[in-house]
Amino acid sequence: MSEVFIGRQPILDRDMQVFAYELQFHQGLNPNKQTLQSTLELIKKTEEEIGFQSIVGNHNALIHLPKELINKDNLPVFDSNNQLVLEIPNNVSKDVNVLRNLKELKSEGAGIALHDFIDNESSIKLATISDYVKIDTESVSEIAMKTMLETLHKKGIKVIAEKVETEEMFEHLKKLGFDYFQGYFFTNPIIINGQKLSGNKLTLLQLLAKVNDPNTDFEELSMIISQDVALSHKLLVAINNPAAMIPIRVESVADALKYMGLKRLKFWVNMLMLSSMDEVPQELLTTSLMRAKFCELLAIASEHERDKDSFFLVGLFSTLGAFFRMPIAEIVSEMPLAEELNEALINKVGPMGDALKVLIAIEQANTTLKMLHYDGLEIGQIGSNFMAANAWAQQVITS
After folding, report:
1. What digits encode the pLDDT tens for the residues 340-395?
2. Of 213, 215, 354, 383, which is the most exposed, with the fewest CB atoms less than 10 Å away?
3. How far apart are CA 263 and CA 78, in angstroms?
């Protein structure tokens, strides 16, 4: 029997700011009593071990549950300042129990998102009770999309484009008039062949390379950071945040090295350098952190625990092409990374490359996920690590 697991995808607005995260409970095409019970058990387990609030942070949550479980007693728990939006299928217009439960939940502040809107009687009827409507951009023609958008906007309904996979696609759908966009399209930016890095980006890449050079020691790293006044200031602010749990107030980079250690300090420097880049959506940084932690957790749970630091770095750097808007091969050629890290990042080969392939598959949440595995880990375990990595990334960004 295939395991039940949770997928998570960001939904961004027209300015590439996160509007919500969708949490989709995957059960296969025909949920039965056993898988429905497994889903309820997974909700309880995730709530106890991770917490749904920590997975979405300060953002809204779209919940895509089987219609049989749309009931306030079954829903995950979120803070009152996070809007809970229930995603419903387009075939429940005559399901009295579902409609009754939706009415009750909406009266308590929940929103409704209609999944896979199509131009038929059931979808149109359900759209009238929905706050949001989702359109599968792969299965609807552009002419039909324009008509749908015009009709829905006249009714005051916001429209979400599904399966947005590239920045080029995002820009096109934005021109058509969509309000929100679901997917990891921001990790696939428009890349102009032959484009050279600007002076600032080239300097930043060289700094990233030096910081992550395994031969860079404490003293050299301290000197590198101290020469960048803005980076030094940001680092000291971050280190003195209570969430960093440093027992004293740190006044210098040298002190930071003493109390944090080289590995932890390199992580903070990497994060702060990437977060300083202009015209980059914050969700790209969140995704980088999530990917890093996910790869690390896969290494720990499998036979690769001794390489967990390398797995973490591969996950973190897997989005560098999006940060710099250049092919990843050109980026890593400027960095003194070990050959197995290069091969993982460029060609997705080796244990770390396989981890990236698993990660990308679970991000895309496609229908083959139930067959996904990694080094003896099945989809249930992989999904738990994915949720834990998302929660960790949200915590780091918040703190």
Report:
1. 999 999 999 999 999 999 999 999 876 556 668 898 898 889 999 999 999 999 99
2. 215
3. 34
The single residue listed with the structure tokens 């390489």 is 307
Tokens of 353: 């490359």
The whole-angstrom separation of Cα 336 and Cα 212 is 8
pLDDT the model gives residue 79: 86
Long-range contacts of 209-212 (CB under 8 A, 24+ apart): 209/334, 209/335, 209/336, 211/266, 211/269, 211/270, 211/273, 212/266, 212/270, 212/313, 212/335, 212/336, 212/337
Residues in the chain, overall count: 399
d(CA 351, CA 304): 8
Per the CB < 8 A criterion, the answer to whether 189 and 325 are in contact is: yes
**Interacting residues of 43 by C-beta distance below 8 A, sequence separation 6+:** 25, 74, 76
What residue ranges do the domains of the chain occupy? 5-187, 193-278, 287-399
What value does the mean pLDDT of the chain take? Answer: 89
Q: Which residue has the higher pLDDT, 294 or 372?
A: 294
Task: Look at strands 111-114 and 132-136 and give their pairing.
Answer: parallel
pLDDT at 2 over 50: no
Contact of 387 with 319, CB cutoff 8 Å: no
Q: Which residues contact 244 (CB under 8 A, 6 or more apart)?
A: 238, 399
Is residue 314 within 8 A of residue 344, CB to CB? The reply is yes
- Are the C-beta atoms of 25 and 64 separated by less than 8 Å? yes
The predicted pLDDT at position 194 comes to 66
Nearest-angstrom CA–CA distance, 397 and 389: 12
Which segment of 111-120, 218-227, 266-275, 346-355 scores lowest on mean pLDDT? Answer: 218-227
| 367 three-state secondary structure | coil
Topology of the domain covering 5-187: TIM Barrel (3.20.20)
CA distance 24 to 285: 22
